[in-house]
Amino acid sequence: MTKMNLFSTTVCAVAAAVFLAGCGKSEPGAPGATTGGSSSGASGEVIKVGEFASLTGKEATFGQSSHEGTAMAIEEINAAGGLLGRKLELVTEDTQSKAGEPATVVNKLVSRDNVVAVLGEVASSRSLEAAPICQQSKIPMISPSSTNPKVTESGDFIFRVCFIDPFQGTVMANFASKTLNAKKVAVFTDVKSDYSKGLAKFFKEQFTKNGGTIAGELDYNGGDKDFKGQLTAIKSENPDAVFVPGYYTDVALICIQAKQLGLNVPFMGGDGWESEDLVKIGQGAVENHYFSTHYHPDVGSETSKKFVANYKKHYNGKTPDALAACGFDSAAVLADAIKRAGSTDGQKVRDALAATKDFDGVTGKITINEKRDATKSAVILQIKDGKYKYLTTVNP
Amino acid sequence: MMHSGAKRSLIIAIVAAVLLTPLLEWIAHTHSTKYFNTYYLGIGIDIAINVILAVSLNLINGHTGQFSLGHAGFMAVGGYTAAKLTLALQSHTLLWINPILFGGSLLLGGLMAALVGFAVGVPSLRLRGDYLAIVTLGFGEIIRVVFQTTEFFGAATGLPGIPNWTNFGWGWSLAAITVFVVACIVNSTYGRGFIAVHDDEVAASAMGINPVRYKVTAFVTGAFFAGIAGGLFAHHKRFLSPTSFDFMKSIDIVVMVILGGMGRTPGVIAAAVILTVMPEVLRGFAEYRMIIYSLLIIGLMMLRPQGLFAIGKRTVKT
Amino acid sequence: MEWFFQQLINGLALGAIYALIALGYTMVYGVLRFINFAHSDVLMLGAFAAYFVTPAIWKIFPAQSITGALLITLVTALLCAGMGILIELLAYRPLRKRPKLTVLITAIGVSLFIEFTCQHKAVFGSKTRPFPQLLPMHDFHIGNLLVNSNDIVVLGVTVVLLVALWFIVQKTKIGTAMRAVSFNMQAASLMGINVNRIVSFTFGLGSALAGIAGILYSMKAPGIEPLMGIQPGLRAFIAAVLGGIGNLPGAALGGIVIGIVETYAGGIAGVSNYRDGIAFAMLIGILIFRPAGLLGKTTIEKV
């Protein structure tokens, strides 16, 4: 009995310790904590910007990347003197990669923290959940990397700074039929991910329109580690290429197992592939494969190059992935809109956002179109010697 | 039959919840402060939904002594059914019809869930203990996978654009009704059978109680209310995605029941409140939040294994 | 035909890993009658242990050598065994006499604790890390079939471990004690068996198997992250129940069956998207006809 009490006391003590550690923490850029801003704001109030991201749970690694980009943008803006003479404060909430959470946390950001705008999320389904709340409260929301077309259809306060599935799917379909001269392509999608399903749908539409045939459509569940069952089936169809619109964590393993099965055809994917981890995990197996993404530092503008350098400095030499770049752009586009609006009023910021034209973002020139989506070009890269080699730019 | 006193409390609870709603909403919208705003109001609704889930699961796991891990699946069935109905039938002109439609779709969602509960319950209730647990978990997952792959229900993208009809009044009225119905069932002469099945199945059947019938009744009733909760959830979050209903959600509900004390309704309600509020309070601790949450669960099980609140008359034998 | 055999190989290699994990679930269940939810997290800890141990061992032994790999496996197994014993000692032992459900919830708590702690950036972080290639890889061509050396290693290790486990449980003194405790804990302790020691040993053995399964799983899919245990853990758990929980050969059989069925189902277009539900559907189908699992014995309720 005493032993038990001793242990439960220890458990509670550890809980308390963690509690206090959480309190005492004020590391800049830490998720959940507020970034930037100053308690002794000289010019009175700070401008609060809300962010919701999947910082824990199944998709934590994507949410954290995006958050790092956003947090860095806010810090850079503050270092440059802030906006309208005021500092920015980023209030970040974690969605635990779970549906049901975004509605709660965005409600909190809007009604309790009184943020002027909301940034987030990576996953389209979670952005879709948050969008009606921002729309109803007339708070502009900018999604950094939700590519499902439905997201911005939620209302005129909902924006995004990335391209959408139909564009990227078409780009890769044209690449497959025109550059790779593929006639038969197998499609391997993540059934849990709306991003993967969406991209696959538009790829298939365009590819069949180009006269190609889809040889085998198989699915996996994001987070799976064994893909051999599906890959063996794909191999027996003898495709010219395989389109895998997934995230790099799964894609790297898919490429490794495909190689083990002797499936040596080009693999193609979308911006979910872009991360240095793709090459680190996939190593030789991802060599010579192709994917489309937002930018490439080699051909990007000065802004992109500066971003990559600063990010590396800021996060111990880590190379930014596509999600980090989009996260950065979401904050930068918002800051630009607030500056042009000269106010933090929701309606004025919204109007300024809608008028964004040729904004010099990290991921390219961003113009917000009438559907509140970003119109910008995509680049196609190939993995060569563990590096991303620039192939071509496709304009919308 | 229940005493009229219980009926009176039910009516008072419903009237209070319905009357309070406009007042609370008015304050939250016009006098939003750090201390009261729509976020807190939303958590109030979350609590009501979790109370319905926990109390209905308590009928299965607590009172009847079965071990179901598939409650989130029934919630999903109810949620998707209700949401699809309102999306198809909602009227933008005849606004008075919408509350009736909402009530109807919640009911239908509940009935759908009960039907699925029946289909799941009849074959699987032959199993005992851990086998039953894993089979119900399996059914819950299969239900989720079906929604995840069915284009009609939005598949992986989810179902957006559900009207925002769940409010404080709806949530708490239905929570009160759930508590009332479960209490009525358990405290009736018929309901003694549940406790008999829980305590000793063999002895119960020797006394002429048909355990399978009781188990199925508990299962179907529990599934019905889980379906209602799913409908409320859909119209509260205004968005449905299969990931809301994975087995972690079922486990969350089970934790509420066990923490509250199996078979003790007041304790289970209190646990539902605490386990909904706790993660929100811990939000300030960001990445430490879930670590603290898991430690608290372990600590509570060590210190109060009989459930947080050993109130109510049932003593549980396992 | 070629497709059929290739899938059989894939399925066996996957099923062997499930079998190893399922053994841990079933052993703990046999002794303590509860499902150790934290078992899948021990698998993850095993993968991470190997990840951190490998560079150190490769300094002494040449990289990708068989001795190196064996040593890494041994160290990982020991670390995981220690971890399993520690979890039992701290979290489950104080609750030994409590209702099983209490222990079950504690196990869920422990599992969440390990997962969220490891996801924290001060521990492992949520990023996927590349797992080192422990052994050189070869492809073997048998006719049109392609067998990877990894698959052979996985199958070989599983068979060796199964035989070793069978030997421990059936032929050694401690194994006899394990069976006695599993049969009746109270009677066993009256016979002079130190129940606590046996329970610790069971946890250690099960966790060591989970750790080795973690290595094998990471060799197959060399990307490791703190939540990697959940999915194989759930499948192995199903496998244990499918085979008849508490029954060792049953767990091995269940693992192999699930691995094979899942692989075949995964290879059929239009079915592969239901893959998460297939193992469960099969389990439900079998339990309805054999309520105690494939090899489990139906116990008659005593009045």
Task: Tell me the domain tally of chain B.
Answer: 1
CATH homology group of the largest domain in chain A: Response regulator
The CATH topology label of chain B is: ABC transporter involved in vitamin B12 uptake, BtuC
First-last Cα distance of chain A = 71 Å
Strand fraction of chain A equals 15-25%
CATH architecture type of the largest domain in chain A: 3-Layer(aba) Sandwich
What is the spatial order of strands in the main beta sheet of chain A? 8-7-9-10-11-15-16
Q: What is the mean predicted local confidence, pLDDT of chain B?
A: 86
Radius of gyration of chain B using CA atoms only: 19 Å
Uncertain ranges of chain A: 1-43
Q: N-to-C SSE series of chain B?
A: HHHHHHHHHHHH
CATH domain topology of the largest domain in chain A: Rossmann fold
Largest interface: A-B, 53 and 47 residues
Tally of individual domains of chain A: 2
The computed structural class of chain A is alpha/beta
What fraction strand of chain B?
under 5%
Helix content of chain A: 40-55%
Structure, explained:
The complex is a heterotrimer of chains A (396), B (318) and C (303). Chain A has helices spanning 2-24, 60-79, 101-112, 124-137, 165-179, 194-209, 228-236, 248-260, 276-282, 302-314, 322-341, 346-354; strands at residues 34-36, 47-53, 88-94, 117-119, 141-143, 158-160, 184-190, 213-220, 241-243, 267-269, 290-293, 359-361, 364-368, 374-375, 378-384, 387-394. With 396 residues, chain A is an alpha/beta fold. In chain A, α3 packs parallel to α4 (124-137) and α11 crosses α12. In chain A, 62% of the residues are buried. The model of chain A is unreliable at 1-43 (pLDDT under 50). With 318 residues, chain B is mostly helical. Chain B has one domain: Orthogonal Bundle (ABC transporter involved in vitamin B12 uptake, BtuC), CATH 1.10.3470. In chain B, α2 (38-63) runs parallel beside α6, α2 packs antiparallel against α11 (265-281) and α3 (71-89) packs across α9. Chain B starts with a helix and ends in a 15-residue tail after the last helix. Mean pLDDT of chain B is 86; it is low at 312-318. In chain C, β2 (139-142) and β3 form a beta hairpin. In chain C, the strands form two sheets. Chain C has a two-stranded antiparallel ribbon. Chain C has a two-stranded antiparallel sheet with strand order 2-3. In chain C, α9 packs parallel to α11 (275-289). Chain C has eleven helices and four strands; from the N terminus they run ααααβββααααβααα. The chains are: A alpha/beta (396), B mainly alpha (318), C mainly alpha (303). At the A-B interface, α1, β3, α3, α4 and α6 of A face α2, α9 and α12 of B.
